[in-house]
Amino acid sequence: MSERRISLRYPTRRSARIDIKGKEPIDCLVRDLSASGARLEVPDPRQLSDKFTLTIVGSWDRHACRVAWRKGNMVGVEYL
Fold first, then answer.
1. Residue 56 — left, alpha, or beta (φ > 0 → left; ψ -120 to 50 → alpha)?
2. What global pTM score does this model have?
3. CB under 8 Å to 60, separation ≥6 — which residues?
């Protein structure tokens, strides 16, 4: 299988928050980060809409995101 990512990813374990308009924020864990997206561990991926804002706790990092894939409790997102 060939690598399709645009940029290198780095393993991490950072707390983050998912903000979806009209819903309560969802806490999650960032497992991988790259310049173009992230892999998130979430309690229930079915709660997520296809687009949302991701805020990484303890930093000013805030990204508009689009869900690229879902598998179990993991979600891959692309920054918009």
1. beta
2. 0.88
3. none
Quick: pLDDT tens for 36-45: 999 999 999 8
Domains of the chain: 11-79 (2.40.10.220)
User: CA–CA distance from 64 to each of 37, 45, 57, 69, 72 (Å)?
Assistant: 10, 17, 15, 16, 22
Q: Are 14 and 51 in contact (CB under 8 A)?
A: no
For 23-33, give one letter per residue: b (16+ CB within 10 A) or e: eeebebbbbbb
Residue owning tokens 């310049």: 35
